């Protein structure tokens, strides 16, 4: 615990120390990264030292004489802290060369401070052990990330996205604090540990209230609306950190509350599982329809949160139905996917950032042929794509396999739970297929083929620090894929302090991790043998280059290539009416056609619904109440006096 | 040892069976048809040749055939041919197997997009869409098998004490599964009525159009991978059809390969008698197979 607190201090120093050094830009950036890395390394060492300790290490102090703050480091915290400590220095390293040099030094300094604050806040959220600590850390996290999204504040779009994000995060916090208030009222205690004694009805209400709040932070459909706006607006490394790590804090909050409440009612599990399936399938369906590369990745975050929730929901179902194997598989899969998604989603956002920085373009259909121009970015992005599609032999598959195993355990249950488990299997299969389709689209359209519009200048590979960050993450994806056993055990370790181990079954996972490792390595062996064979066959063979076979068409241009829009059209249309497609097209009517155009956009049903059901009525009412705002200060003071008087009389 | 032998036998024999399909189609057309060993000759011919690569392509284009073939071979590692224990088997191996095939599809599609050809893009888009639907249908089959026999591995399905087979106690349900699997076999291996391996019109193709630019040994790898994939699906159906009591090492193997031949003849007959579906009908076709399996699953719920 002491080491983790030292780490917090170092991380904060990483934001403060560079502030006076901003005139020396390189030095400030290097100091920022060095302090962050030192902090995170210290934190990681602290985690591993306490990894096998049975006792939960705790720390508490009183702030401003009245607010007791309590921190505790248990197994669930450790599992969620690991991606924070792992990703933060890598993301900062990428930011070293990604951030513009020509902005004012103060803006960079403020950015670095917010970055450090966000990381520190995430560490505190996972450590918090009472209401005050959690609330303060949660708000700090929201505000710091809001300021990070606002980095490009000259752009109208960025400001709008940041405001939308702030609205969502504050409304979500309102729900969470309402839930906490209910629990406090029922138990009279600020410490988390006491909340398990609340009455049944209060627990359920609090859980569902908090589900809305944590769900909006995590980006669960249909509370995800801020995500596809905020991620494209933020700088890419901030998107990487927010999407890779920060939204997982929503999942953490949900799991923490679930275990605190100790409420085995199956309705909680079913709700989480159902939300997971909706987020998963619709997230990837929308992702297929999006053409802005960062928006597409943002929708994939929603999909992956869906997968995580499916895993956790199945685990909860396992608890509700006293099936230890299902509990272990479900939670281990969900928690491992938290780490996996942090790795490959950060990697993909970094790749997207490199593309945008070098080409100045974020629309898929205008890119192409980048693999030969940016080989490192291309190869690492391909690795991340295979990983996020959940394909072996990379890490995404490991966690999905665990979740599949949990779902197949659930098929044995009785009644509606068995049906839900079957639906989860089908949803996972559909998500897997759609994610493959979506990432063949991204890789195929952006990196392969020929550039779809003439390049103004030759495109160079991205800078060294950016490449290094991407290579490290790609290697991590490969490592977990080929050597999954310790990571599966690590994810399962997250449950140690929360779920009592079942009697008689020392290892609920059986020999699955070892077998999976064996299978992936055998595949790798087959692949390498075949590659060697191919190499032998190709010796002394004539190999020549030529144009792509145009099927008899002799004058092909780069513009006749398939685009992302045409590639995904059929799949997206398949998901109607859950996905709304709007096309603007001037049909050809005469024999000699004039200039025509075609544009299609996919609109988010949740966004339309929110606007119609919530925003429009509020605006209408607000419009009617405009007369309250008249600018007379004496009447405003009158309002305040009146309100206080009424409150004093009534309450 | 027996496992290695049966795996090796499968690897060697897989290119033989597509010859049967060609023979059957030729018979229906009143022709003599190519020799049965035609596919071996094709492979030998391709392996002797060199390759032409498009200037648009990158290393992904060369990786595509390798991954497609390697995943298909790796998938066969899990299969208990004729009820013999496979080389690798564990609870959950079917999921690994079908995701490996998904990896093969990922790289085949990526290689197709790498050429920058609009036709290959068209084929790739279709493959991605239909493949997704087929994958969901296959997982429905896995749910059905799990409900019938409680195992999640191919060896558990076909070689335990209670193998899943038409001749078993729940054979009636399995008729639905066999029909659905046969439909999926046709869809996943680009046969008529979903795709036509013999067509020469690029606009109408799926798999063949994706590999237009591959040549020489790379094309041989793709062909080989396709043979193994088809072999795997046919072996699934043959294992379901296998009558009880043919357990001897020789008779079992012979019966298994005889059933395999029957499945390939059935493919040939289907291809001779049906026309290709319109592209917008293909999703309905795949979802029909899904509905069949789903119906079978509902029936297991009633039994339980």
Account of the 3D structure:
The complex is a heterodimer of chains A (651) and B (304). Among the domains of chain A are: 259 residues, no CATH class; 43 residues. In chain A, 68% of the residues lie in helices and 5% in strands. The longest helix of chain A is centred in the middle third of the chain and has 36 residues. With 304 residues, chain B is mainly alpha-helical. Chain B has one domain. Chain B is built from twelve helices and one strand. Chain B starts with a helix and ends with a helix. The interface between A and B is large, with 81 and 78 residues.
Features:
heterodimer, A: 651 residues, mainly alpha, two-stranded antiparallel ribbon, 22 helices, B: 304 residues, 12 helices, globular
Mean of all residue-level pLDDT scores of chain A: 88
**Shape descriptor of chain B:** globular
Q: Using DSSP, what is the number of strands of chain A?
A: 5
Residue fraction in strands of chain A: under 5%
State the secondary-structure class of chain B: mainly alpha
Q: For the report, how would you describe the main beta sheet of chain A? A: 2 strands, antiparallel
N→C terminal distance of chain A: 43 Å
Number of DSSP helices of chain B?
12
How many domains in all of chain B?
Answer: 1
Query: Which term fits the overall shape of chain A?
Result: globular
Characterize the quaternary organization of these chains.
Answer: heterodimer
Helix content of chain A: 55-70%
What is the CA-based Rg of chain A, rounded? Answer: 26 Å
Largest sheet entry of chain B? none
What would the average pLDDT of chain B be, to the nearest integer? 89
Q: Indicate the percent of residues in helices of chain B.
A: 55-70%
């Amino acid at each position: 615990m002491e080491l983790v607190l030292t780490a917090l201090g170092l991380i904060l120093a990483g934001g403060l120390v560079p502030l006076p050094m901003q005139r020396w830009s390189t030095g400030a950036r290097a100091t920022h990264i060095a302090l962050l890395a030192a902090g995170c390394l210290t934190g990681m060492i602290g985690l591993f030292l306490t990894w096998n300790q049975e006792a939960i290490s705790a720390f508490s102090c009183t702030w401003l004489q009245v607010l007791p703050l309590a921190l505790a480091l248990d197994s669930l915290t450790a599992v969620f802290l690991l991606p924070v400590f792992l990703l933060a220095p890598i993301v900062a390293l990428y930011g070293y060369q990604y951030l513009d040099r020509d902005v004012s030094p103060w803006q960079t300094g403020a950015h670095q401070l917010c970055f450090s604050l966000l990381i520190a806040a995430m560490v505190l959220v996972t450590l918090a052990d009472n209401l005050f600590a959690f609330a303060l850390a949660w708000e700090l996290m929201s505000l710091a990330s809001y300021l990070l999204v606002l980095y490009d504040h000259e752009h109208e779009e960025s400001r709008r996205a940041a405001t939308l994000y702030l609205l969502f995060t504050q409304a979500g916090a309102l729900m969470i604090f309402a839930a906490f208030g209910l629990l406090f009222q029922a138990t009279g205690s600020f410490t988390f540990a006491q909340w398990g004694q609340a009455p049944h009805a209060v627990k359920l209400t609090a859980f569902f209230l908090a589900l809305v709040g944590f769900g909006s932070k995590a980006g669960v459909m249909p509370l995800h609306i801020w995500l596809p706006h905020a991620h494209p607006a933020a700088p890419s490394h901030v998107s990487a950190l927010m999407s890779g790590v920060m939204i997982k804090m929503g999942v953490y909050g949900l799991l923490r509350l679930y275990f605190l409440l100790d409420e085995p009612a199956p309705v909680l599990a079913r709700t989480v599982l159902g939300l997971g399936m909706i987020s998963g399938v619709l997230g990837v369906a929308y992702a297929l329809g999006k053409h802005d590369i960062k928006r597409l990745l943002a929708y994939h975050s929603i999909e992956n949160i869906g997968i995580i929730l499916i895993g956790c929901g199945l685990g909860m179902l396992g608890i509700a139905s006293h099936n230890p194997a299902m509990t272990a598989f479900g939670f281990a899969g969900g928690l491992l996917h938290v780490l996996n998604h942090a790795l490959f989603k950060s990697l993909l956002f970094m790749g997207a950032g490199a593309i945008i920085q070098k080409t100045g373009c974020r629309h898929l259909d205008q890119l192409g042929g980048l693999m030969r121009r940016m080989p490192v970015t291309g190869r690492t992005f391909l690795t991340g794509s295979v990983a996020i599609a959940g394909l072996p032999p990379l890490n995404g598959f490991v966690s999905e396999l665990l979740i599949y195993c949990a779902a197949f355990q659930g098929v044995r249950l009785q009644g509606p739970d068995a049906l839900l488990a079957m639906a989860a299997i089908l949803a996972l299969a559909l998500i897997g297929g759609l994610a493959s389709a979506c990432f063949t689209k991204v890789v195929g359209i952006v990196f392969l083929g020929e550039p779809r519009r003439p390049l103004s200048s030759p495109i160079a590979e991205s800078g060294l620090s950016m490449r290094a960050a991407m290579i490290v993450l790609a290697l991590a994806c490969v490592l977990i894929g080929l050597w999954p056993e310790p990571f599966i055990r690590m994810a399962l370790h997250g449950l140690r302090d929360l779920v009592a181990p079942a009697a008689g079954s020392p290892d609920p996972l059986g020999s699955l991790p070892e077998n999976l490792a064996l299978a992936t390595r055998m595949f790798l062996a087959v692949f390498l043998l075949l590659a060697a064979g191919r190499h032998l066959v190709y010796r002394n063979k004539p190999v020549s280059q030529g144009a792509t076979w145009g099927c008899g068409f002799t004058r092909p241009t780069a513009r006749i290539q398939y685009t992302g829009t045409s590639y995904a059209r059929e799949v997206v249309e398949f998901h109607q009416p859950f996905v709304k497609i709007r096309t603007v097209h001037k049909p050809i009517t005469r024999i000699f056609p004039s200039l025509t155009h075609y544009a299609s956009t996919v609109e988010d049903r949740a966004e339309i619904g929110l606007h119609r059901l919530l925003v429009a009525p509020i605006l209408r009412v607000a419009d009617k109440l405009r007369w309250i705002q008249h600018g007379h200060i004496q009447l405003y003071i009158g309002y305040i006096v009146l309100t206080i008087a009424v409150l004093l009389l009534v309450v | 040892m027996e496992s290695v032998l049966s795996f090796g036998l499968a690897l060697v024999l897989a290119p033989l069976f597509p010859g049967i399909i060609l023979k059957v189609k030729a018979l229906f057309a009143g022709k003599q048809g190519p020799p049965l060993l035609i596919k071996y000759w094709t492979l030998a011919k391709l392996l002797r040749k060199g390759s032409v690569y498009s200037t648009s392509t990158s290393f992904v284009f060369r990786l595509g055939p390798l991954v497609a073939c390697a995943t298909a071979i790796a998938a066969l590692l899990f299969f208990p041919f004729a009820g013999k224990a496979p080389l690798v088997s564990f609870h959950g191996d079917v999921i690994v197997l079908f995701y490996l095939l998904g990896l093969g599809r990922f790289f085949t599609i990526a290689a197709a997009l790498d050429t920058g050809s609009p036709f290959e893009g068209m084929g790739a888009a279709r493959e991605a869409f239909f493949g997704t639907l087929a994958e969901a249908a296959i997982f429905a089959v896995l749910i059905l098998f799990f409900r019938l026999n409680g195992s999640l591995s191919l060896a558990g399905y076909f070689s335990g004490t209670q193998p899943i087979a038409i001749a078993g106690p729940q054979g009636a349900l399995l008729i639905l599964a066999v029909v659905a699997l046969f439909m999926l076999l046709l869809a996943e291996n680009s046969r008529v009525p979903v795709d036509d391996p013999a067509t020469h019109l690029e606009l109408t193709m799926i798999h063949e159009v994706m590999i237009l630019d591959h040549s020489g040994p790379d094309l041989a790898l793709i062909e080989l991978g396709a043979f193994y994939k088809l072999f795997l699906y046919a072996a699934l159906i043959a294992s379901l059809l296998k009558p009880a009591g043919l357990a001897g090492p020789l008779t079992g193997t012979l019966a298994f390969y005889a059933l395999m031949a029957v499945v390939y003849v059935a493919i040939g007959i289907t291809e001779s008698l049906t026309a290709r579906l319109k592209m917008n009908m293909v999703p309905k076709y795949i979802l029909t197979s899904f509905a069949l399996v789903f119906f079978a699953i509902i029936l297991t719920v009633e039994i339980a």
